[in-house]
Amino acid sequence: MSEKHVDANGREALTELLFQLADDDFLLAYRGSEWLGLAPHIEEDIAFSSISQDTMGHAAMYYQLLEDLGCGSADELAHARPASARRNAVLLERANGPGHYLREPRYDWAFTVVRHYFYTQAKRVRLESLTKSSYAPLAEVAAKIQVELHYHLLHWHTWFVQLTNAPGEARTRMTKAIQDVAADFAGVLTLGAKGTDMVRWGLIDEEKVLTENTIAALAPAFAEVGLEWPMPFGMKHGNGRNGEHTPDLDEALATLSEVYRAVPHAIW
After folding, report:
1. What CATH number is attached to the domain comprising 219?
2. pTM (2 d.p.)
3. Do residues 191 and 17 make contact, with C-beta atoms less than 8 angstroms apart?
4. Tell me, what DSSP letter sits at residue 103?
5. Which example biological process does GO assign this protein (predicted)?
6. CB 162 within 8 A of CB 109
7. Residue 16 lies in a domain
């Protein structure tokens, strides 16, 4: 599909999908960056920082595609849109835990590991579909991102298995985190109101297929750690694809856009 051969419905579906992809990575990259200096050990501090930087780079690629479609500058789309215009899944905006990352953070590493592992599996499935997208620029970007994502997935799978297989408090906290993440994970998997049009235009596989493939990707890890599958997935805190968000997003955007608002002509 080329921009010249898409009607208004197809263009809306394409931009909606790109906003979902961009906003998902943008918010999760920010939440990951808050762990800088707080990760369990220095090697993880470096690795997690690298993963977060990669993820922010993925968001930038999607925002650039939106800019190429005439939706505004990538900087503006990333930093200047209000919370109500964001299409990220609510799970990805949720704070890492209580406290401020500069002032007595009391973050939950188990929640972070589970959220990133679940999301990375879903992202891998989505990217596999996007490499066959009818919109060639999107397919090309998806193929580039796939290379980095392989290492992200190995990283989070290792943490997920080691912590869940550990005795005592580690397994208890991981089990709780799995239920917590599952309660909002449907928000990651949904394509929102324009999902039917996305599929009709060949932009991505249908939501049911993506969900089934994500479950199939996650299931072996649950067997590996001897846990039952945490179904059903839900959207406990709202459907971000419809612009439903939590106060956590307002807080995140205020921090993320602080420099942009202070120096709007800077290069992001």
Report:
1. 1.20.1260.10
2. 0.94
3. yes
4. B
5. phenylacetate catabolic process
6. no
7. yes
Residues in the chain, how many? 268
Nearest CA among 145, 148, 127 for reference residue 47: 148
Inside any domain, residue 239 = yes
Instruction: List 61's β-bridge partners, or say none.
Output: none
Q: What is the mean pLDDT of residues 86-93?
A: 98
- Domain count for the chain, please give it: 1
Q: For the chain, what percentages of helix, strand and coil (3-state, to nearest 5) are there? A: 70, 0, 30
Task: Quote the tokens at residue 226.
Answer: 């001897």
The reply to whether 2 falls in a domain is no
70 by DSSP, 3-state: which? coil
Residue indicated by tokens 């039917």: 196
Q: What is the mean pLDDT of residues 251-260?
A: 89
Mean pLDDT of 105-109: 95
- For 121, the domain range is 8-262
pLDDT digits (tens, 9 = 90+) for 2-33: 554 556 778 999 999 999 999 999 999 999 99
Distance CA 178, CA 256 (A): 28
Is 3 a domain residue? Answer: no
